[in-house]
Design brief:
Blueprint lengths: L3 E2 L2 H7 L7 E2 L8 H5 L2 H28 L12 H8 L14 H38 L8
Antiparallel strand pairs: 1-2
Length: 146
């Protein structure tokens, strides 16, 4: 059985619903319901808090199980990279949604270098064709050809 005490001064200051009650064996003043205590309610609140903690842990574990990994190096995506890889932006689509940030940067650099190499090759072929046409135009039959 709880033993609860208060004074008229505390009741005037905080009112009957405020922290004006002191329960023997506890520190500080409490409102009347906390001072009297309800062991069933306390147990129910503890169970509810434990259930909430367990469900949060389970949701976090499920989220981590769904987290994608990089197709290049196998590392798990960060939250930002995961969000960027699944976001649909109609103007700009993620060019490599299966790669992490570092692997994506390397892949984009490799693509840029391949495109530059292709442009250089095409320019070289164009120059070779021009040289061949110029050499044909220099011979005596070349001037009657068009």
């Amino acid at each position: 059985m709880p033993i609860v005490a208060t004074t008229l001064e505390l009741l005037r200051e905080h009112g009957p619903a405020g922290p004006a009650f002191w329960r023997f064996g506890r520190e500080g003043y409490q409102n009347v319901w906390d001072a009297i205590g309800n062991p069933r309610r306390d147990a129910a609140l503890a169970r509810r808090a434990e259930d909430a903690r367990r469900s949060q842990e389970q949701e976090a574990a499920e989220r981590e199980a769904q987290r994608p990994v990089c197709g290049g190096c196998g590392t798990t995506f960060t939250d930002d990279r995961w969000k960027a890889s699944t976001t649909v932006d109609w103007g700009r689509e993620d060019s490599h949604p299966h790669l992490c940030g570092d692997c994506k940067a390397r892949a984009l650099e490799a693509e840029r270098q391949a495109e530059q190499g292709e442009r250089d090759r095409q320019e070289q072929e164009r120059q070779e064709v021009e040289v061949a046409q110029d050499s044909k135009a220099g011979c005596w039959l070349g001037r009657w050809r068009s």
